[in-house]
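Hi everyone,

Forwarding the result from last night's run.
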Amino acid sequence: MSSVVLLSASPAGNSKTEALLEFIARRLSQYGHRTEFIKLRHLPAGPLLAGDSSDSLIASARATIAAADAVVVGSPVFKATYTGLLKVFVDLLPMDVLHGKPVLPVLTGGSVAHVLALDYGLKPLLATLGASSIGRGRFVSSSNILPATDTTPPSIDESVERDVIDAIDHFDSELTVRARSCPHAEAVDAEPLDPETLITAPTATERKPS
């Protein structure tokens, strides 16, 4: 069982990106992995923009990522790339924080025209953090993501669901291989985040018009 942090770089509360990450988290949990969700929009804007890594919430988020076995990074595409919210947070992370961790990048957007942001934007950003195992990832059109309702969890339109699940399953396989190669490794418990920031739960997945 691995500890997986899902990092949401969406500034919006009712976010298709977070719905996609919740879908991924639910499947990873079914495989026995521990999942933890960090919402960057809940970090204090002042210290974040000032580059103050000593702020307690920012320090806790940094520690959580450092202690994780793997990371899933999700962002909507704004102005042809990931959000500025993700960039200012990444600037506060150690250069090698993702070293040795499998990383799954996912992007959401209104048009398949943004698919290149995955290979030419998000993946290079993650590589600067020492990520040596970056999955193929997925770009998912926002129109194919169905947010949670009062009675149902988030879901993916059946036209692209299999493709998203394949990416998750490949990520799970990598986690399993990693765990077997490090049988005595134990996850380090990170300082807990503020409860508001946690949820305790380039191939484009675009096959129908937005």
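The chain has one domain: 3-205.

Cheers,
N.
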